Amino acid sequence: MEFWRKLLNIILPPRCIKCGRILSEKNGLCSECFSSINFISAPYCYKCGRPFEKESNLKFAAKQYCGACLQKKKFLFDIQRTAFIYDESSKNLILDLKFRDKTVSAETLANMLYQCGTDIWKENPDLIIPVPIHRLRLLKRRFNQSALLVKYLALRCGIEADYSSLKRVQNTIPQVQLSGSARRKNLKQAFKVTSPQNIKDKKIVLIDDVETTGSTLNECAKILRKAGAKAVYSITLARTES
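RE: above sequence
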C-alpha cells in the first residue's frame, strides 16, 4: 500500500486546497496559506465561541461568557465553536467547496471542524447532523456541503452521522440576501424533524459552513429541542467578524 501511495503522489501530487501549490504530504494547506488563515483561539466566549480581543493586560477565566450569552439573549444551543474568521484570506475555502465543486477540500476542512470542537467532544455527543438544504437547492447544487463535511467529521471522531432526521421543508430566500429580523422571519417553519425517535434524549452536534447572525443554527436548535434533544451543540467552519 505504501508503494501505491507513493506512486499516486507522483502521478497526482497533493496540492494546497487554497493556492494549488504542490505539497510534499497530504496535509491540505501549505505553510503560507495556513499562516494566512485567521483561526479562532482562546480567549473566546465559552457558549457562543465569539472571540475576545487578546489584550495582554486582561486575564480570562476558563469559562468566560460574552454579554449576550450572560443575558441569555442570543443562542438556543449549548456550545458553539468555529474554526476561523470569514475574511478575504479564508472565504475562498468556503466558496470553492460550496459553489465551485472543489469537494476534494472537504476532508481537510472537516479536520478543522474536529480540531476546534474539543470542548464539544468532551460532552460525549450522540449524533452529528448537517444543517439541511431544500431538495430543490440540492438538485441545483448536487450536494449539501455541510453533509459532505459531516461525512468526514463522523469518520474522524467516531460519532454517528444522521442525514435524514432534520429536513428543510421550505425553499427560503438565501440568508445572505437578508439581514436582522428578516433572517429570523425567513426561517420560521423552514425546518422539520422527520424522525423524533432518533432525536429524543440525544446530544446533537449541528454542522454548517458559515455563521453570520446564527439565525439558521438557532432555528435548527429550536426544532431539535422541541423534538426532545437533550442538548444541541454547533460547529461551523467560519464566522463573520461582525
